[in-house]
Amino acid sequence: MADRAARANDAFATSPERLEENILLAQMERLRGHRGGQYAVHLHLSALKPINRQAHFIDIASRSFESLSASQDCHVYRLANLDIALICNNVPIDDLDPVIDKVRALFGEDPLTAAEPGSFEDRFATWYDLSNDEDYGTFHQICEDLAAAAEARREQQVQDVKQQEMEGNPLTPVELGTINRKILKVPLSDLVRDQVAVRVVPGGKSEIMFREFYVSVSDLRDKVAPKINLFSNPWLFQYLTESLDRRIIAQMAQREIGNMSESVSLNLNIQSVLGRDFQMFAQQIGEHANKVIIELQIVDIFSDMNAYIFACEKLRAVGFRILIDGLNPLAVQFFDPSTLNPDFIKIAWGPEFVGDDQERRAEEVREIVEHAGRERVIIARVDTEEAVKWGFSLGVSHFQGYFH
Amino acid sequence: MADNQRLPSQEELLVNYVHRLEKLKRGRSVLHVHLSALRPFNRREQHIRAAASNLENLIGADTGQLFTLRNGDLFFVYKNSIKPEIENAIQKIKFMFSDDPLISDATEHGASFSTNYDAETEYDRILQQVQGLAKAEKRREDQVKSRMDARASLKAKQQQGEPLTPDVLQRIEDALSRADLSNFVRRQFICKIDQNLIPEQGFSELFISIQDLRETMLPNVNLLSNRWLFQHLTQTLDRRMLSMLAKTDRITISGEISFNINVSTLLAPEFLAFDDNITASRRGAMVIELQKEDIFSNLASYLFAREFVQAKGYRVLLDGLTVQTMDIIDMRRLGADLAKIVWHPDMVDGGESVHSRLKNFVTRCGAENVVLIRCDAREAVDFGHAVGIQHFQGRYIESLIAEDGRRRDLMKLKRRIERNESEDVETSM
Hints:
heterodimer; A: TIM Barrel; 2 domains; 16 helices; B: TIM Barrel; eight-stranded mixed beta barrel; 21 helices
């Protein structure tokens, strides 16, 4: 689909003279002599968090200016770094303001838009009065810098294409059946990985809470679908996980859980937990079920709440504990997972939450943690010290990830 | 399995008892108190217990036996010698519920509070009645149990077709993207229903009937058998729906409408093209329905998309909430304008805590913004009213609309006749 969304990223794939930054620079040069009534606005969308910096978001944001630029002397530039620049000639600010407010609202949950519009702290938009020499000079310099950066990106484009090949083609139903059949057959034992979740105790020492066993999807991909990006469609990927569940359940049945010194956890679909393979597994491990924590995904839970409740009853009756997975700091601001009454809640930290230090948001997450009970919360995907600090600041001392 | 250990239900015990009664039916009667017909707020557990207590002191191995059914109805099998006491007890129970329309409007609607059968002359009717009730209860129980049952899933396969597989999905999606689906578009109205059950139409939901689609195009496939594959299929249906909505000659979309869509589709070129082609005023008359699992599968996209469509004038509806999810998912915090909550008869049986949670939910969201959906019986509307819900959708509501239409036609006809008559009088004078 060669849709507009792709255009934002393709901007730097074109020849140098067609770079949006160079067109912007040329425009700046053209109006150097007659700058009365001219002004520029720079929207710093490149400073959005990665989850909000998606190409189709930026595409929709820039489309918001279309009707204004059709009726007024207002040029919109979509820059390679995803910023948007506007150059306006005598456009009433009262006409432009509502459009910018609309775009700001689109990213209302991003810290970038948190400051009062137009205030000193506002990092979302910068205004330049181009009739003013100093402003003109500053913005001209910025355009030059942006153009240089865009040029550098363009040269790196070869690299990016390689990167895309790594990610692979999107997963469609066409390949799904074949991949699924391969998953059910591929030798799995060397694809099973494990990672511990730890409890950090005073003095900086840590003790193991449990060990999660999972299938490494990137290694699996190399074996069953090297050219396909398995994550490109969330629903089709979820379908594949049902087959993976069956495989890992069979794997775990072979490992003597009773003889393991630690508790273990498995991430499964609710349908898998209700299925025959799992029933047999549960019978086999018997009373050792109390050493097993079942991780369930929030999306799975929401798609059939009755099945979740039913599964919980069944699991608890024989001693399994339940962990809710698939949460991130954004999600817990929107619902309180403790109402689902799990034994543990896993909140995945991610680089996109760097700088998420705003008090209001932090406060909301802290409340959720308090409500759930700190001892039930685990911060996962911890690979930097920053993540640990973030966890500590919330009063959490359970972590899972590469950083120890 | 579990069936062997399960205690027999009151319904089953009653059927057994009535079978045994056949030999002893002389001089006995059976009283059926229709407590299930009371308004939901009058038929909570404590009410049923209080009502039953009036009959309990008449129980005796020889004189009387009481059965309290799951739906709240009472059956009392007694010797005719204690008939006066029975009459007395009925009056007492009636008095307890004197504010309920079942009693206050009894003469108007002819619905009766209790029925008394003479066991000797009406034995067959009694047997038929209790067997019917036991069957209904069995059916309800089976539905609850069937989830794990391999036999049940085999049966489902026979009735609903082969489970959906990726290969079949691909073929279906190909077929769907070519076929004219306008014949499968259905419309259901969201109505404000008053205490007299007169519907006032609000917006209408347009949807592609999966049932009809399956029966016509894919009779041997169970589209719902895998929820993830089905979810993928809905993305194809989204695009077809949008293209039909854009071509108004295909389906009429008069009035305010709503339609279900995936968040990912809202951000796709198909929706942007659709949006480009409709007038600004139409956007204000459209409600976009989103599913909770879709929202939480990519919250950042939802937040962006919601802001995008609301700024354009569309309203956003949070679809498919249930009693279990309504407290967890905060419609206000998600910034949705409306919420739909799925009716289930268990809501009535949920007791005081469910009722007060629902009331709080309605207050929190605003009664104007909540719709009770899949209402297929009057019970749903009565229950909704009891917890403050005003808007309803479902098969029963469609029947009310039809009935209301007939009533209006009749009134028009009546007025025309009256006018003609008065004209006749004038001309004759």
